[in-house]
Design goal:
Number of strands: 0
Structural class: mainly alpha
Number of helices: 2
Number of domains: 1
Strand content: under 5%
Largest sheet: none
Length: 92
């Protein structure tokens, strides 16, 4: 069975794709908040918007990073199991 098509692999890829999309959205909102801050010349409201969107962007970045690391760990387990299988087949 191809371990890249298992339910686990599919779920990890889906999570990574969703986290990446959320990151793009959060980044755009953060950039928009920076524009609002420029337009409002640093008012308290502008700073609060920037703070809120900055935190959302940081959280999205953390989730996207975690999802990518989870995917890479899964791929590493596949590689390790293939290396072990190759060693057994070759008699090492």
């Amino acid at each position: 069975m191809n371990r890249l098509n298992t339910p686990t692999a599919q779920a990890l890829r889906k999570t990574m794709a969703e986290a990446s999309e959320a990151l793009r959205t959060a980044q755009a909102r953060n950039e928009q908040a920076m524009g609002v801050l420029r337009d409002t010349e640093g008012t308290a409201d502008g700073l609060l918007i920037l703070r809120r969107e900055g935190h959302a962007y940081a959280q999205a970045l953390t989730r996207a990073t975690a999802a990518t690391i989870d995917w890479l760990r899964y791929v590493d387990t596949i590689l390790r199991s293939k290396d072990l299988a190759l060693e057994v087949e070759s008699g090492k």
